[in-house]
């Protein structure tokens, strides 16, 4: 061995531990490296694979992507063990099939049983290690707003500790099950009053709370937005809508920007009817086959239609889709009471 390298030998073990603890990407573990990592504090993830196995090649790419994003959000590292090379180690950990993914804290492990893709795995791991208010820098915010659990982000008022303290308390208890909870960094603050924004990849809306900053009010808001307010109409949402048995209010448009504008306009209406009416956006180009059954024509878009069981109601032609118009339309069609139906507003198909 080169003399100067030999002199550094006592430091090589420390260097290895640093790489195991703090390195990004996916590193390979042999039995010795596994024992060293298991002796360190904190959670880590191992994918057990046989590299020649085709599903393992796909999972490797997902692990690399998950590791990249974990490096931006936590100190959790991801490793791989080649079970064709280290059969004894895999057998000692009861690894019986490939690929297998497990999370470890020292030598104690739990099997990850979710989809073997980067985003679900990342969501699962961060949920295990995140039980408090997360400081959202730009990188962490970009990753966490795109996970499988909604991100509730606080933007505090300048020099306001009370809202941060309240959210920190809720993050550990009441909000821990349904949300990641974070606070924007001081550089992103500058408002006169605190507000909360919820980001959910399945929600076309981005709900915002700027009311009284009190525990009861915030928890009520959380109960309304823990599930998507307005979903995109696709195969996955259809199943959810059918299971709920609720009427569906559908916004038909052939233009993506127009659909985004409608979503922003009708978010408060969707929140008002939470638990009574489901709301969805419908891409009228991809779902052109659905126009005729709904009594719609391409030159009538954008359009708003309510389907309740076998009944279909269409907002009257020529009427602008506004919050007041849709609120009144829903009341007349689904919750008739003191209001008298306006034939110009409601067309029954």
Automatic annotation (TrEMBL):
* Stored SUPFAM superfamilies: Thioredoxin-like
The record's Gene Ontology cellular component field reads: endoplasmic reticulum lumen
- The broad enzyme category this protein falls into is isomerase
What Pfam families does the annotation carry? Answer: Thioredoxin, Thioredoxin_6
Domain Thioredoxin as annotated: residue spans: 29-123
The UniProt record lists the keyword Endoplasmic reticulum? yes
Q: Which residues form the signal peptide?
A: 1-23
Gene Ontology molecular-function annotations: protein disulfide isomerase activity
Task: Quote the CDD domains the UniProt record gives.
Answer: PDI_a_family, PDI_b'_family
Look up the EC number in the record and give it: 5.3.4.1
Keywords of the record, alphabetical order, are: Endoplasmic reticulum, Isomerase, Redox-active center, Signal
Name the catalysed reactions.
Catalyzes the rearrangement of -S-S- bonds in proteins
Q: Where in the cell is it found?
A: Endoplasmic reticulum lumen
| InterPro entries the record matches | Thioredoxin-like_sf (IPR036249), Thioredoxin_domain (IPR013766)
* Chain segments annotated as transmembrane: none
Per the database entry, which stretches of residues form a coiled coil?
none
Q: One GO BP annotation here?
A: protein folding
Q: Name the job this protein performs.
A: Participates in the folding of proteins containing disulfide bonds, may be involved in glycosylation, prolyl hydroxylation and triglyceride transfer.
Q: Which family does it belong to?
A: Belongs to the protein disulfide isomerase family.
Name the PANTHER family on file. PROTEIN DISULFIDE ISOMERASE, PROTEIN DISULFIDE-ISOMERASE A3
Q: Which protein are we looking at?
A: Protein disulfide-isomerase
State the organism named in the record: Talaromyces pinophilus (Penicillium pinophilum)
Supply the source organism's classification: Eukaryota, Fungi, Dikarya, Ascomycota, Pezizomycotina
């Amino acid at each position: 061995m080169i003399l100067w390298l030999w002199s550094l030998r006592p430091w090589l073990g420390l260097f290895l531990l640093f790489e195991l603890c703090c390195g990004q990407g996916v590193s390979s573990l042999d039995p010795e490296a596994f024992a060293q990592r298991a002796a360190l504090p904190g959670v880590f993830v191992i994918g057990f694979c046989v590299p020649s196995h085709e599903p393992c090649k796909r999972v490797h790419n997902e692990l690399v992507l998950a590791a990249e994003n974990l490096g931006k959000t936590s100190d959790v590292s991801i490793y791989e063990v080649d079970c064709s090379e280290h059969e004894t180690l895999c057998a000692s950990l009861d690894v019986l099939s490939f690929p297998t993914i497990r999370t470890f804290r020292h030598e104690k492990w739990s099997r990850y049983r979710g989809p073997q893709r980067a985003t679900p795995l990342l969501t699962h791991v961060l949920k295990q290690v995140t039980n408090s208010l997360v400081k959202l820098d730009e990188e962490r915010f970009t990753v966490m707003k795109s996970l499988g659990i909604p991100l509730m982000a606080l933007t505090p008022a300048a020099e306001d500790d009370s809202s941060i303290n309240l959210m920190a308390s809720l993050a550990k208890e009441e909000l821990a099950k349904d949300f990641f909870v974070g606070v924007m960094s001081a550089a992103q603050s500058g408002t006169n009053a605190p507000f909360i924004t919820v980001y959910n990849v399945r929600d076309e809306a981005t709900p915002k709370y700027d009311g009284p900053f009190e525990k009861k009010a915030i928890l009520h808001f959380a109960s309304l937005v823990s599930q998507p307010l307005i979903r995109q109409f696709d195969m996955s949402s259809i199943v959810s809508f059918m299971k709920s048995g609720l009427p569906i209010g559908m916004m038909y448009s052939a233009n993506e920007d127009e659909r985004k504008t409608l979503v922003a306009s009708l978010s408060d209406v969707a929140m008002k009817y939470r638990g009574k009416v489901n709301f969805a956006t419908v891409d009228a180009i991809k779902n052109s086959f659905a126009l005729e059954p709904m009594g719609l024509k391409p030159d009538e878009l954008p359009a708003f239609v309510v389907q309740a069981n076998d009944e279909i109601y269409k907002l009257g032609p020529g009427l602008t889709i506004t919050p007041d118009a849709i609120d009144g339309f829903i009341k007349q069609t689904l919750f008739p009471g003191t209001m008298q139906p306006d034939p110009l507003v409601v067309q029954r198909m």
